[in-house]
Design a protein that fits this description.
The structure is a homodimer. Chain A is of the alpha/beta class. The first copy, chain A, contains 12 helices and 10 strands. The first copy, chain A, is globular.
């Protein structure tokens, strides 16, 4: 198998792009794909100060590494959720890449904000860990971005994540969810701009990128992870992609275009009016935001 | 397994509806589902004169049988495509149900309209049989409906057909195709109203209906049928339905609602202006319709 570009020995075959590439040409291809995603969806430019949420996994570490390599002004941020060994290992991987490559990374702990670890918080408010995790991470990441003057918050969601989510939303025609599924969520009062620069890059390409770039990442899943539906949808998309290479990319790109033309433009669903949380100032639909309600509940329980 | 309605012995389990039913209660359920489809999408009413396209297969024969049993004014129409044994067998099944149950059925042959059989026509115009078949059947069925004063043309497309087509259209976001996928295509100048009363009824329910009602149908596929993609999509939908019963119905119903709200209402795609074919008067985008062009070509070849 020869590299389609330089005719040297290829290391990876990308059926979706009808390409075989050597290491060096694969990296060029990878950066070009990310760059196209950034430009096509107008995510940010070289003048932006980008905060990259890193978990220690392959997607987010690859994103931080790629953005810095491509010359963007990017800083990683790791939130230690204090979930035992998994969190320790994840933090080590983040600290390792920061130290070895001199990447700027902000490290914070959930207790700095909530007073307790994520599993304890979940126990105190009697909710599953997964149901709290997303909300709390979104809150803390947004707060760090706003407080420290970042213009953009980037996350490592990849093409497979987005396709699985899209398929699930479409099978049930969840119009509100579809309307919010976008590689770019613009800044609003109190909310930083959120972007997904890897939305057109597959999981397989990300694994190859990490191997070639020597990025050491956490391989184990979160001990609380329990997402049978999204794994099921990824399996379905895998079968479709194997039969018709390129479908995932067409499905996602086609959706974003369709969504912007029909859903966002024609949506009858009125935008809900956000006010500010009376405790912390975070945008919310009620008087007190979800984060502050969880925090208050935990403090009450501690005082009992 | 007991019938959920009458507690007698059940013969079929419908996981998508969380039901087990005996023969008699299944028939009630089947008619109720078809009736709901007709009413929900306002396909037709008891005052309409309905032409039902029958192929000799289970879906269309079940449709004719159900509509007549439900008290609709329905007449079957069979177009003999003259494709050898498959056509002979199909015609026999149609004639059998017509004779045994006293159902009115119009029988016509493709040569009455085109002068030759479908395989010969395909050969003459150097096109695959499947690429001609749909266009020719649509033309002849519409002409019979218009000439003989029918207000509606009904076809046997079932839930599985519609879901497979929908999935294919969505993976590629073929907006024009999506905009035309509807259980109801209203009448226009020169075109009869077209409806799909089985769009919410699964293939499995149709097989059960034919068995219970003693309907003898053609089991073999058309010898020219070559639809690997639609079979592949049916397999994908089967896996999703098995994992999450009821998804096919939600997917299809949700689409029709979504489509009518967002696609039809907001579509930027301008409707193409139809004129009348200068030979036969059929609505067309050019001077001569596709059917007349094929016919002309065949006549020229015969004269050579």
């Amino acid at each position: 198998m020869k590299c389609k570009v330089c005719k040297g020995p290829a290391v990876i075959r990308l059926r979706s792009h009808n390409l075989a590439l050597c290491e060096s040409c694969f990296l060029d291809f990878f950066y070009r794909q990310v760059s196209r995603t950034i430009k096509r969806y107008r995510l940010f430019d070289k003048g932006d100060k980008i905060l990259v949420g890193v978990s220690g996994g392959k997607d987010s570490l690859a994103l931080l590494d790629a953005l810095i390599t491509m010359g963007y002004n990017a800083v990683g941020v790791f939130i230690d959720l204090e979930m035992g060994y998994h969190s320790v290992e994840s933090k080590e991987k983040v600290e390792k890449i920061a130290k070895e490559r001199g990447y700027p990374v902000i490290i914070r702990s959930i207790s700095d904000y909530l007073g307790v670890s994520l599993p304890v918080a979940a126990q105190e408010v009697k909710r599953p860990v997964c149901s709290l995790c997303g909300m709390i991470k979104r809150y803390i990441l947004n707060r760090i971005a706003m407080d420290e003057g970042f213009s953009v918050l980037a996350t490592g969601h990849n093409l497979d994540d987005e396709c699985a989510r899209l398929l699930g939303n479409i099978l049930d025609w969840r119009v509100d969810f579809l309307a919010r599924q976008d590689p770019l969520l613009d800044e609003e009062e109190g909310l930083v701009r959120k972007v997904k620069p890897l939305a057109r890059t597959s999981e397989r390409e990300l694994t190859a990128y990490c191997i070639i770039r020597g990025i050491d990442y956490v391989q184990g899943r979160c001990p609380y992870a329990n997402k049978p539906t999204s794994y099921f949808y990824k399996g379905i998309m895998f079968q479709i992609e194997r039969k018709m290479p390129g479908t995932k990319l067409r499905f996602y790109q086609g959706f974003v275009e369709f969504k912007r033309e029909y859903l966002t433009a024609c949506s009858n669903t009125e935008k809900q009016e956000l006010t500010r949380c009376e405790r912390c100032g975070y945008p919310t639909l009620s008087n007190v935001c979800n984060f502050c309600r969880v925090k208050e509940r935990i403090e009450q329980r501690r005082d009992e």
